Amino acid sequence: MTPLLTTKGLSRQFGGLRAVDGVDFALMPGEIRAVIGPNGAGKTTFVSLLSGRIRPSSGAVVFDGVDITAMPAYQRVRLGVAYTFQITSVFANLTVFDNVALPVQRTLTDGRTKGQVRTGVMAALERTGLADRAGTLAAHLSYGHQRLLEVAMGLALKPRLLILDEPTQGLADSEIDNFITLVRGIARDATVLLIEHNMPVVMGLADRITVFNSGKILAEGTPGEIRANTQVQDAYLGATHG
Amino acid sequence: MRDASPAKTYALHIGVIVLLFALNFVLPDYHQGLFARIMALAVFAMGYNLLFGYVGLLSLGHAMFFSAGLYGAGLTVYHLGWGVPEAFLAGVACGALLALVIGLLALRTSGVAFMIVTMMFAQVFYLMILYFAGWTGGDQGLVIQQASRVIAIGGVSLDLTNPTVRYMGALALFSVVLLTTLALVRSRFGRVLVAIRENEERTKMLGYDTVANKLIAVVASGVICAASGAAYALLFGYVGSNFASIQYSILPLLWVLLGGAATTLGPFIGTLFMYYVTDITSGFTSAYLLIVGVALILLVLFAPKGIMGSIRERWLGWLP
Q1: Domain ranges in chain B?
Q2: What is the predicted ipTM?
Q3: What is the pTM of this model?
């Protein structure tokens, strides 16, 4: 099977800091991949390079056989690379409906979906459990619901690759369980790449885990392999061996 | 807001148009003339509002789009002897072309830089009008004779100097632009414009080419403002450089702020309000601008969302 997304020698420097340093990475279609690592390991910079929010200093990104290294972010979205923000950035002054209508009408314009805006919006809201709040201003939603709205917007883009940047940050435990179910559902028709700090979520969701440290990939493997990896334990999981 | 039935929204706007139509037959001569002027200039405010209210781009140079229409129409009538419809279209075309060029250049900036760049371009435009005084009449301007302001359709001739014809001409343009902007802001494109105003970065990450969308908005805004200028030249028969001055870049901003930015009826209400406050106070005192200033300060303090914006916020949430 050919990977959905690969990177070759992907690097990004900020002044003297190599935030992402020569990363070779491959993501298989249909998998749920978690990216973990200590703060400042370059995780967010890495996914920003994939989504096109930041340009690489060197290296290449290939999505589904197309070199997208020089492609602006909005065109990558049209190819099917969707990104949800670490800091919730829904449109606070628009209704929940309008927030989701924006990505839905985009896919309609691109001819990737068919039908009415309303149908597409309500489908995405049903899946995230926000359907009864369609008319509410996004600013009036609870934090947890705003995170869900963020995911609904990502879903409505009909992505082939959905990048979730710390999606469970700030969620209550009860909300996290629903969230795991939701991501499993999404993964049935899209590849999911998530940055996550919450270890139970990572271990429960991910097919494979990539560990970042100092801008490089430290280790990669199944949750079991990562748990057993002593290097990872030293760097991240707390160095309490045994 | 978007949940309001379209029927209710369109009924309100058509009601306003019908009311303005009826006013033609009851208003005294003086107010009939004033209303015609207000409707023509409200079109200018609506064009400004499209960019400022919906996209959130604050331009300080819209006088150039208004006067592109004004001179585009006025000069073709004056020098080339064009008919009214052709001259009107020439004015609109000038505005479209100018807005395209200015948009391509000015949209490389945003925020304060955008204000300064648009203001500088407008000053260049203003100074060019003065420089080419041989054609433009400079600061004296040009008067377009009555004979040039008659539209002949078949056997009927419409004389734009006739108060009722002039009123109806202004109302026709006003109605078309009002309903067009209403349809525009309710459309998918309108939703994208508001999204850009609210969070441009996020809009990009939903797959939108925000620069292209902003450019379309600048051109649409320029076209509407130029239509206002072209109509003004043809309806009132005067083309002058003061319409290109900085004052006429600030005025639409004030009208829109007063009436309510990002409301469809706000620009008209703001223009109407400002004209009548000026008109009434100038009857009492020569210091009427002071009173206008105080009125503005009070509105900004107590109704920062403008007249229609406050009404929408407090009572009628469905107002577009």
Answers
A1: 6-245
A2: 0.89
A3: 0.91
